[in-house]
Amino acid sequence: MTASSDVGYHAQRQARWHYGEVAFWLIVLGCGFLFPSRYLIMTDILRLALFTMSLDLILGYAGIVSLGHAAFFGVGAYAAGLLALHGIITEPVLALIVAGLAAMVLGFATSFLVIRGVDLTRLMVTLGIALLLEALAERFSNITGGTDGLQGIEMQPIFGEIPFDMFGKTGFFYSLAVLFLLFLFARRVVHSPFGLSLRAIKNNPLRAAAIGIPVNRRLIAIYTLAAFYAGIAGALFTQTTAIASLDVFAFERSADLMLVLVIGGTGYLYGGLIGAVIFRMLQEFFSTITPQYWQFWIGLVLVVIVLVGRQRLHRWVLYVPNLVIKQVMGRKAVVAVPESDA
Amino acid sequence: MTIALETRNLEKTFGGLRVTRDLSLKIEQGARHALIGPNGAGKTTVINQLTGVLKPNSGRILLEGQDITDLPVHKRVLRGLSRTFQINQLYPDLTPLETIGLAVSERLGHGGDWWRRMGTRSDVNGEIADLLTRFHLLDVMNEETVTLPYGKQRLLEIAVAIAAKPRVLLLDEPAAGVPESERHDILAVVGSLPRDVTVLLIEHDMDLVFSFADRISVLVSGALLTEGPPEQVARDPQVKAVYLGEEAVNV
Amino acid sequence: MTAILTNLFDGVAYGMLLFVLACGLAVTLGLMNFVNLAHGAFAMAGGYVCMVLVNRMGWPFFAALPLAFVSSAAIGIALERTLYRHLYARSHLDQVLFTIGLTFMSVAAVDYIQGSSRVFINLPAALQGQFDVFGVGIGRYRLMIIVICGLLTIGLQMVLAKTRFGSRLRAAVDDPRAASGLGINVPQVFAFTFAFGCGLAGLGGALSAEILGLDPYFPLKFMIYFLIVVTVGGSSSITGPFLASLLLGIGDVAGKYYVPKMGPFVIYTMMIVILIWRPNGLFGRTAAR
């Protein structure tokens, strides 16, 4: 191979579909047929995965720390709820997109605040915005239903054809389809020059500017996209559970999100998906031990993970799976969690 | 004789300290211009102002006759002004392939492309391959930058600046910290830069300065002490006085 | 007019309380560049200790206050020596995650032990009610807060400015490496300061039971306020957070009185606006290292 085609080959290598990835999605799809009694919790995992993926886009790829990502989730949730409740847009997919756009607008508007300042400032500003929205939602309870939330949402059939059923089957496949499509798009974006420039900005913003990257513009773009994704996750939540209440804005939601990413790993898109599964299972497990105080265990897990160190933890956890993969498919297929200190 | 890069009465103050005093520099098109001075003279501060990392308190900066004083960093790069950093500023997690690939993409205007996959443009690939070869980085192109030996990192630092195809290149101590065994590569690369690129070099290594530069400016405490061809500067008693006790000047 | 003065008085009391609560956090951030979101948990601990001592064991209020300080300081030292010090070199994100985890644990633990309803500390008669000064309602409790917190602030300022420890602390905040080069034992300075800050938080927690309300969710509810004080006030001095706390206290009280429909917005909007205008805080650098 000439140097040039060698370069081309290696540059594209990361973008190629890995065996493991295909297997992963097939398994997820399979779960939909294998566990018909567990649609509700599986849908919950899918929504969480989408929400976490949106945070990964800004945290794992662009290095923006946010403690208030629930703001966009909440806007999406309420938008979808209100659209359905007042019959403004009855077709779910259309409403989903519009709700996502609403969150996107908020994301764009607030992105200017977030690109300024250091990490701590960003934490504060994002947290402040989420709290502000929560307070707004509470204050305007005539629109939002206050602490009780929106009551009596009824979802119309998707595309007018597929009705939402009691068992959550429609909800599951609907959420899966949305997640997969958005995942594909995100995958495309992160493997593009734009995506690479984000990683460069995260690694060294000074250097990034010095090679001509318009840093602020790129950050605004990804932040807006992430807000769109988070809004869609929120809208999915309302559409599949028919509820929208104040806790869509709750700080705990943003904090749980961080934990999911910590468990799953940042910067390779699958972190949110894998982390969501593990997190939800942990949550179920802890709830059975101490139903009211499971937050204690979540906090403990967080503390332990940070103390042990995310990279070390991933190496331990992946030790056995990687041994298996090495045997079956050879060295190249081994999973390494590309983890940098976010 | 066209002027590639120029400052007019550049002033910079930090708190109460004047780090750049009324600095007026003129660097000719195609020149090999060196900026020397004792530690703390403010050389890197000048580079930071030229590139836009720091904003001067007053004065103007002109690139090829155009006033760039108010342009942000990345816009200056797109106008043809590129730099290396005294301490490597690279991307720890990215490979040389990705690092240079990004620089080339940005220059060609594809940097914001979010749809096309990296590595699918053959013109870009060709250029990347060419740069990697010239800078002896082909064999390590897939290693993460943080794992590379310092000499290779320094070469990468210069390669990234060159990838922007600058018309004016600012080199901030390119040989700094490079072990003796790897210096040769650096010096060779700097010496082989195309003649139509204007180079401003900051260096402490006098061998490099006197073999490379055709004009030298001496900066002391933020102000221009003297300026001229190497032989003249080397003989200047003021320059010798400034450097005596600093380091042995091998002239 | 009297309403304005009463609000001003209440706002100042609130602000000074916030200052005592938050100044430990400011020092932690300024000194060790460590983001301790669990700060509120130390405050809560002090509050509950005081409650138990006064309500269950019959201690006088003013005798229980110092113990609130001591108990929180003790917990602070214990946690700092065992857990916190492993995280000084880590990223802010790691510190945030770790301290959020600690917060969750403390919230759940207190909920489990004491139940989730708000607790009140039995106040001595001298502190109850208010007296009138030219028509302005001066609450006795709030007056006490202003006095205690005012004395503490002056004391802190004097320690910082006039004692050797104070100058070591200031040197370490300014430039830790240079300071240790001068022979200052920076880790020791920090451990002591961290414990002191936790103690102050504990004291503040005990004092705030009456005004802010003490329940297991205290650390989460008030975290944002402490963070506002620190980011707006900066962490390179005491005056910055002090002024920021006063601003916040008066702003909050005024907001709730004059525009009750918009209560919490005033604070959050103020914070966002200030942070846009000055990303490093009103008064100085916040962890600019």
Short overview:
The complex is a heterotrimer of chains A (342), B (251) and C (289). Chain A is built from 15 helices and no strands.
- Total count of domains of chain C: 1
SSE series of chain B: EEEEHEEHEHHHEHEHEEHH
CATH architectural name of the domain at 3-90 and 164-243 in chain B: 3-Layer(aba) Sandwich
Largest interface: A-B, 40 and 51 residues
- Strand segment tally of chain B: 11
Main sheet characteristics of chain C:
2 strands, antiparallel
Mean pLDDT of chain B: 87
**Residue ranges of chain C: pLDDT <50 for 5 or more in a row?**
none
| CATH secondary-structure class of the domain at 3-90 and 164-243 in chain B | Alpha Beta
- Give the overall silhouette of chain B: globular
* Beta-strand percentage range of chain B: 15-25%
Question: Structural class of the secondary elements of chain C?
Answer: mainly alpha
> Uncertain segments of chain B of ≥5 residues (pLDDT<50)?
none
Rg of chain B (C-alpha, Å): 18 Å
Could you say which structural class the secondary elements and strand pairing of chain B correspond to? alpha/beta
Describe the biggest sheet of chain B? 6 strands, mixed
Q: Could you name the CATH homologous superfamily of the domain at 3-90 and 164-243 in chain B?
A: P-loop containing nucleotide triphosphate hydrolases
